[in-house]
Amino acid sequence: MKGRAKIDPIDLRIIELLSKNARMTYKELAEALGTTRQRISRRMEKLERMGVIQKYTVVPNFDLLGYSYVLLGITLKAGVSIDEAIGKLKEVKHVTIIQKALGTHNLVVHVVAPKDMKEIQAIIEEISKAVPGVEHMDVTFITETCKYELF
């Protein structure tokens, strides 16, 4: 049933609350929205079934964990299959997020790597060799996440 979802303001409010704290219980959501836990349960099942809510996750502080967080903006040569490139990127251990993009880059790739610059260089070289038809790759080191809110 994935596709264009019919959601209402209450669904949007649930998503907003969960984007700030994905650990909220159905009871806490119900209290915040002035409804029952059972109604929240039904709405959550609907949102998950429709594909509106795809995943519950955490946002780690990579610096405190001893890792570097790197964004790669990849521009492919004309005619190169983006889906083939994505398939290759999915096989690379340190790649955590792959996003199709419009604009300067065809793909935005998130990489979590050990802080050692030689290891980072090796990972970037592995990615550039694995992906067919890379025309250009921009590398950006994320030094701090100052705001992370979806709504």
UniProtKB/TrEMBL annotation:
Stored InterPro entries: ArsR-like_HTH, AsnC-type_HTH_dom, Dimeric_a/b-barrel, Tscrpt_reg_AsnC-like, Tscrpt_reg_AsnC/Lrp_C, WH-like_DNA-bd_sf, WH_DNA-bd_sf
Keywords assigned: DNA-binding, Transcription, Transcription regulation
The HTH asnC-type domain, residue ranges: 7-68
Biological-process GO terms, alphabetical: response to amino acid
GO molecular function: sequence-specific DNA binding
Gene3D superfamilies the UniProt entry points to: 3.30.70.920, Winged helix-like DNA-binding domain superfamily/Winged helix DNA-binding domain
Pfam families linked to this entry: AsnC_trans_reg (PF01037), HTH_24 (PF13412)
Gene Ontology cellular component list: cytosol
Keyword Transcription regulation applies: yes
Signal peptide stretch: none
Protein name, per record: Lrp/AsnC family transcriptional regulator
